[in-house]
From TrEMBL:
SUPFAM superfamilies: EAL domain-like (SSF141868), Nucleotide cyclase (SSF55073). This is Diguanylate cyclase (GGDEF)-like protein. Residues 656-686 are annotated as: Disordered. Residues 396-653 form the EAL domain.
Amino acid sequence: MDAARPRLAGPDHRRAVLVTTVPAVVAAVPLIWASGGLPPAFWTMAVLAVVVDARPYVVPGRRASSVILPSICFTFGIALAWGALPAVAVQTVAVAVAGARMRHSPRRTLHLTVQHAAALIAASTVAHLVSLRVDDSPGWWAVVLICLAAVTWMLARYSVAALARVLTSDAPPRRRRRGHADLFATAALLLLGPVVLVAARVSPALLPLALLALHAVHRMVRWAGEFERATRFDPLTGLPNRRGLQAAMAERDPDRRRALLLIDLDRFRTVNDALGHGAGDRLLTRVADRLTAAVPTHDLVVRLGGDEFAVLATRVEDPASARRIAQHLTDELSRPFPLDGTPVELSASIGIALQSGRRDDSTLLREAESAMYEAKERGDQVAVHGPDVAEHTPDKLTLVADLRTALRRDPPDDGIVLYYQPQVAIATGEVVGVEALLRWRHPRRGTVGPEELLRAAEPTPVMRLLTARVLEEVVAQLAAWRRDRVPLRAAVNVSARDLHAGDIADRVGALLGRYGVPADLLQLEITESALMADPHRVLETTTRLSRMGVGISLDDFGTGYSSLQHLRRLPLAEVKIDRSFVLGMTTDRGDAAIVRSVIGLADSLGLRAVAEGVEDEATWRMLAAAGCHTAQGWFHARPMPATDLATWRRRYRPVKAGNRGEIDSGPAVKPSNDEGAGWPPSPAKR
């Protein structure tokens, strides 16, 4: 395949034209002179060969382009009729014209000339050895010999091209797949040569009619190029698409270390919503242009779809060098994009997967996606795939499959069990609510904790089935407590997948209506990590839920990002102070200061402050002194099944705070159930 090199411009181009065309004409004259007197048919074919090469055919490839010279139609016929010398002379001039037209360097033009000269000499030699004569009425045997000469032409030309690549490149040779359009167009032009030759001998006036056939071949090549671009290139940005990336990864040297950087634009949806999809498309093209300008020519920039891009870096030594590349890309993307007079700020999350040797390319892409999601979850801009990055291992896939199978069964056969941990008002000691925590009794593994379960299920559609199952049971339990005149509020964690789906408000409304439960008895807890991927959609969903009367709680407050912005924009009812701060507030002044600040901020915004991880009386006293509204933790009770909760409530004696900083009664009664006691001091939650 003849790769089209960067084009020359200005004085360089004019100098290249002189350097290539003048020597070509000078070299052609003695070759034609040595061939003796040539008939008018030869001169007509020679002139047409030079003329048609002013418009060579270009077949777009993956990283370069194939050049097909239409002059081979005429020079192949000349070689069959009058030998190699006049054919090489005409081809030399035609290649010089094509090189000048495409702004090739003199070196590139010389390479192309040598390839075609070798092909013509080989085809002419075969024709001479088999005594091929193309007269005015060739027979079937002559047609077979012409095909043999054409095959020899192609073998010789592409063999010389491959040899030139080996001699001029430092990279080890590798097998290349030639496109069907390239081979088919070349074969069509060669086999058209004898037809043109016969027409020239009958009457040279018929030769211009061959231009129509050449035009048909040109259109075929053009359509093939458009089809190639449609299948391997993104129509919006012009970058290779996912299929183009897979082809590039398959073709590259497997012994060279490389890295795949998967780039996902953060909050791109807000641009579409604010400025329209047309502006979003223009922004994507500018992102593509900036990435292309920032990436070296030996690397590949790809648009995978939507707001996802990828860079295949081929000269990566170690994870540190891959991180430097990713940091350079994030710096480039962080500069504002001018769009319709408005500077648009963007950021990106980049996942990196390293590969050396002959590992599967699909594995590389999957690892890069896993690292990218890890970067989003942590709020980092860059993450490198490694042992700490969550991925879909066979064990996790089996766990998710078992969970899906279990959720098809009716409760309690599905093994899903909900535990409830009381939430106590600090000022009065009254139990004001509970938080529903998930457990799953696997038929073979035993009890699967929420951390392991959610880590496997949350990236999959099974998460929505699990949330629906939990909501159903919690709302049914609220209805039962309400019938028993125990109006407790229950909090349920929901995942980012549930919030982004958008229909959770409809499902919650249908459940509340079916069981006759007031909306203010249900509270949904969201984490700040759920807001990172699509804050606009989360805001829309939570606003609908809040208008229904469902309370919204921001869980794990203080461990995420843009917390103050979330407090200002989201329709929150409470914030939950993360247990990592509450557990350390009696021994760490910094943690205590953070807890007091969060309580004061929540109070000024009219929100409840709930402290998680209250394990001892000293922590309880400090929270009471700081004015915290609600506490949750083992100081009052461990998580327990709903049946044990009623027993616990009968035995519970409130721990009250009279004046701020004073405790009026003794510690709370702990539950006696054995299963609840088996959980660690800081259990993972659901």
